[in-house]
Design goal:
Mean pLDDT: 83
CATH class of the largest domain: Alpha Beta
Strand content: 15-25%
CATH superfamily of the largest domain: Periplasmic binding protein-like II
Radius of gyration: 28 Å
Number of domains: 3
Helix content: 40-55%
Order of helices and strands: HEHEHEHEEHEHEHEHEEHHHHHH
CATH topology of the largest domain: D-Maltodextrin-Binding Protein, domain 2
Structural class: alpha/beta
Shape: elongated
């Protein structure tokens, strides 16, 4: 019976131990490095059942290789790489668009004017032809006819004013402050007279290349007076995705998604735009593979601790009931005839109700302080050998569950 109890407690210990997720992020992707760094700290502070560790990769391909080799459980890559190998989408972190800006007095008016034009590209990371290349191909323009050169965010106005470039291509989330700032700089250099190049056939191009998306930038997205843009326009973009492989259990991945959703507003408050992360649409036809754990989370099919370990929990409860009478007698002996148990069972049960009904962070803080004081008291008696192992094990399980509920309630209140 003691062996059965030990097995049951061991299973519960393993189930309650935080699940570690290593996530590979390209070195050039400083946005997601900050997002997951902050998420890791928040999950650790709230004692969530999952933990995140950021692993920096040389580039996106290296991050995907780390995922495929099993050295990490997650990777952040662009949508074109997310379609390769065994990568399964877990979350869509954000969508980035290619916004092409040009002075109204310049020669760049539409896509067909790209030949023999010089475009300054400002973005985090290396330049590539992943966005503009397909546009040139669609319009039958040789890729070497358009010239691209990197331009720092602080050099946009100078490059336009000195006519080093004919237009500016900024790649990023259209709601990001960085993109709005660059649009503002371009407007200053052109005395407010700028225009946004509309890629009218963005839908058709996106259908040819599934990794790309057609994005409509609405009027006034970038602010300003008059609003910029003055009218909505179409462009191309891609999604940045958190991906995993089927090697990770569905329930573990579902729990990760749940925890990230609980803290995403807190992350967004510190890093504007980070709260744009969303689960992929599991009902929409898509060329991307979607992790089964994400489907379980979205459809409400996630298994909780009881569902996954019910047999062992019942087995452990049966073993504990057999020891109940022995434990009761032992408590009576420890108390010198006093029937009151030294483990504060009623106090623990009361704290469970208090945490569940807490309406403010102050109430949760008070409950956590009471739990800490109770833990120190029981720990002292246990260390002195005044409590049996069975009672200590039960108290430990209760404290783990109590702290988990406090963290979950705190996250809900913060949300």
């Amino acid at each position: 019976m003691l062996a059965a109890l030990a097995v049951a407690l061991g299973v519960v210990h393993l189930a309650l131990r935080p699940n570690e997720f290593k996530v590979a992020i390209p070195s050039a992707d400083t946005v997601d490095q900050r997002v997951f760094g902050l998420a890791a700290e928040a999950l650790r502070t709230q004692r969530a059942p999952v933990r995140i560790e950021v692993v920096t990769a040389d580039n996106a391909k290296a991050a995907l290789d780390l995922l495929e080799s099993g050295k990490v459980k997650l990777a952040v890559v662009r949508s074109d790489l997310a379609m390769l190998g065994k990568a399964h989408t877990v979350l869509v972190m954000r969508r980035e668009a290619a916004v092409l800006i040009a002075p109204k007095a310049g020669k760049l008016k539409k896509v067909n004017d790209l030949p023999n034009a010089t475009i300054g590209v400002t973005r985090e990371g290396a330049l590539d032809g992943g966005l503009i290349g397909p546009v040139l191909d669609y319009y039958g323009i040789a890729r070497d006819k358009a010239k691209f050169m990197p331009v720092g965010a602080d050099d946009v106005a100078t490059a336009l004013r000195q006519k080093k470039v004919d237009g500016i291509l900024v790649v990023g989330a259209v709601t990001a402050k960085q993109v709005s700032d660059i649009v503002s700089e371009a407007a200053k250099a052109s005395k407010g007279a700028i225009e946004f190049i509309d890629i009218e056939e963005a839908d058709a191009i996106a259908k040819r290349i599934p990794a790309l998306e057609s994005i409509e930038v609405e009027q006034g997205t970038f602010g300003g007076r008059p609003p910029r843009p003055a009218d909505s326009f179409n462009t191309l973009g891609f999604s940045v995705r958190l991906v995993g492989t089927p090697k990770t259990e569905s329930d573990d991945m579902a729990e990760l998604v749940r925890q990230l959703y609980l803290i995403r507003q807190n992350v967004n408050a510190a890093i504007p735009g980070a709260g744009l992360m969303e689960a992929p649409d599991v009902d929409e036809a898509t060329p991307f593979l979607i992790h089964p754990g994400v489907r379980a989370y979205v459809n409400g099919d996630q298994h909780n601790l009881f569902d996954r370990y019910s047999d062992w929990i019942y087995f452990g409860a049966f073993a504990l009931s057999g020891l109940g009478s022995v434990a009761a007698g032992f408590f009576g002996w420890l108390g010198g005839g006093n029937a009151t148990p030294r483990v504060p069972v009623q106090q623990v049960q009361t704290l469970f109700d208090t945490v569940r009904d807490a309406k403010t962070r102050e109430e949760l803080d008070a409950a956590e302080r009471e739990a800490d004081a109770m833990f120190r008291s029981v720990f002292s008696e246990g260390a002195a050998g005044k409590l049996p192992d069975g009672a200590l094990a039960s108290f430990g399980m209760a404290m783990n569950e109590l702290r988990s509920r406090i963290a979950a309630r705190r996250a809900n209140l913060a949300g």
